[in-house]
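Continuing the series of single-chain predictions for the mutant panel. This is the parent chain; the variants come on the following pages.
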Amino acid sequence: MKIKYIIFSVCFICLFTSFAVFSADKNSSDTKFDIPVIDGHNHINGLFRGRGRMEERYQDAVSETIRKMNQANIKTMIVMPPPFPAGHRGIYDVDKLIPYLKLYPGRFKVFGGGGTLNPMINEAVRIGKTTNEMKAQFKKAALKLVEEGVSGFGEMTAEHFSLGPNHNYQGAPPDHPLFLLLADIAAENNLPIDFHMEAITKEKPLPAHLKSPPNPKTLKPNIKAFETLIGHNPKAVIIWAHAGWDNSGNRSVRLMEELLKKYPNLYMSIKVRAVDSLPVNYPLDKEGDIKEEWLELFRKFPDRFFIGCDHFYTAPGGFRIGPDSMPETIQLFNRLPSDLQKKFGIENPSAIFKLTNP
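Parent structure:
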């Protein structure tokens, strides 16, 4: 069964990758942003499979990232570890990245916690309790990241679907005590939180393109709990990652508009990728232009969005993680009006990430 599932998953990804390439073919010139941008959500994977074992090649991965940034017209990049579960193979946090990012002054800002804080939340959910000792350990780990110079906390997750083999499922209440504690720590230190959460507005069966296990057969609503987190400390900036990439079918323009109206401390990064996203809330039409309802949303909240390609950069020859979301994200950006390009590409991320020379 496992072999059949792997074969099916590979075929599924190849099929939809072909669809994505075909649908974007008329826009194949969208390989770089029209203007120099700040890309607010990405990952650098320094693990490399060589000589029969896993090697660490973070310096090569960072050098390759710079090369690709220059090609794509990315001036500055926010990088962070992905949201790891406890005990995951190859888990890392900012300690692996910072020494090499410093070799390129002004090109990077780094978030931390995906490899340290996020597993602690996963473990608390697993054992079903959060003791004062666990809170103290969590706070100590968060403050250590602050001391190391992070520009925010992330990538954290409350609802992370498994999209195939070796891609984990994670579920935690958005209003978990440790998330609320992190919001207080973030507010006190004036640092944002990057938050990955599939939107689930009501109890519903798992979408047909996802497999259970590891995903749950039934999805439980999480928006009310998410609102508890956002409203817990209004001074905490919450970045809801991946607007434009929706695997539940519930992250609609209407939902995002309602939350943005209600919570001025809520921001969103934009990632567009058709290959593994449900089409219902996809932001581009068949011609590759931005759908009118999305453009209206952007116009209503011009200060609350920025680009976050969510690309995994590796050393040359390293194994790639997931499909490429850059082409469609660039495609959307290059079809924005020039005033929104300036907002989403430069002004908004400069303000959120406190960049002094955007």
